[in-house]
Design goal:
- It is built from 2 helices and 18 strands.
- With about 260 residues, the protein is an alpha+beta fold.
- The protein folds into 2 domains: about 120 residues, no CATH class; about 140 residues, no CATH class.
- The strands form 8 sheets. The protein has a 3-stranded antiparallel sheet, with no helix packed on it. Strands 12-13-14 form a 3-stranded antiparallel sheet, with no helix packed on it. The chain has a two-stranded antiparallel sheet with strand order 1-4.
- Strand 12 and strand 13 form a beta hairpin.
- Helix 1 packs antiparallel against helix 2.
- The two termini are about 20 Å apart.
- The model has no long low-confidence stretch (mean pLDDT about 95).
């Protein structure tokens, strides 16, 4: 009975983390480029009371043993990189990646971060930036007198200024891909991800080539969180939490009964 108290407690702790993850998903249901997370669980070690295949006193072997588990623990919280819905904005600096890949941005310390959020801006010098002021990599500068900015599906950025007969190419957007994007580090928040050993090194590609997605100008990628699915998972987690708490209550009642036994 003492074992069941601790086993059920691991279940409650695991479901609490599950609820925390679901809450974060729902909180970011309208976050541009956000990718939902999913908690993976694994069972804990088992106490072997009688190993399978052991011999009996009669000289035979038993086909099945006796092993008692000690609960559960979260093994990973994985990002799910399914595509989000397209939102048409009409803004020339809004870009959506149709397919695989990430935009590159340069942080103030020179570190390169990666994002699916394509809601870019320009500063007073015409440099293309994120909402937090991080420059797109490779850097693209739009002429301050530009009348038109166009981005083709292959990432070519063009601008037309007064007096130009045709738009002039001012830069090219590159996308990067990772062999294991679920291994990227999201600790910075702000829709930014960092390279880790688990993610592998980034592979830069021209949009539309080598498996990289294409660029859609005037669109943004919405979060891939499905509210109904998250609510369903929340109900399942809540019921699992309640069931584990009931196990603790039952084990406590059994201990109380045993404690009240009089010889």
């Amino acid at each position: 009975m003492i074992r069941s108290l601790f086993t059920a407690a691991t279940g409650m702790i695991g479901q609490q983390m599950n609820i925390d993850t679901i809450a974060n998903n729902l909180a970011n249901v309208n976050t541009t480029g956000f990718k939902k997370s999913r908690v993976n669980f694994q069972d804990l070690l088992y106490e072997t009371i009688k190993p399978a295949g052991s011999e009996t006193t009669a000289g035979t072997t038993i086909p099945e043993g006796i092993q008692v588990g000690h609960g559960v623990r979260p093994s990973a919280i994985a990002k799910v990189f399914t595509p989000g819905a397209a939102i048409q904005t009409g803004n020339a600096l809004d870009m959506m990646i149709e397919g695989e890949g990430f935009f590159q941005v340069t942080l103030p310390d020179g570190t390169v971060a990666y994002t699916r959020d394509g809601s870019f801006k320009i500063n007073e010098q015409g440099t293309v930036l994120t909402a937090d002021g991080y420059a797109l990599e490779p850097a693209i500068t739009v002429p301050t007198d530009s009348e038109l900015i166009s981005v083709s599906s292959d990432g070519t950025v063009s601008s037309r200024s007064p007096g130009d007969n045709a738009p002039q190419t001012i830069g090219t957007i590159q996308l990067v891909r990772f062999s294991n994007p679920a291994g990227l580090d999201a600790r910075l928040g702000r829709n930014l991800l960092l390279e880790t050993q688990a993610s592998g090194t980034p592979t830069a590609s021209t949009p539309g080539l080598d498996g990289a997605g294409t660029i859609a100008q005037g669109f943004l990628e919405n979060s891939n969180v499905q509210v109904v699915e998250e609510i369903l998972q929340m109900i399942i987690a809540q019921r699992a939490y309640e069931a584990n708490s009931k196990v603790i209550q039952t084990a406590d009642d059994m201990l109380q009964t045993a404690n009240n036994v009089r010889r």
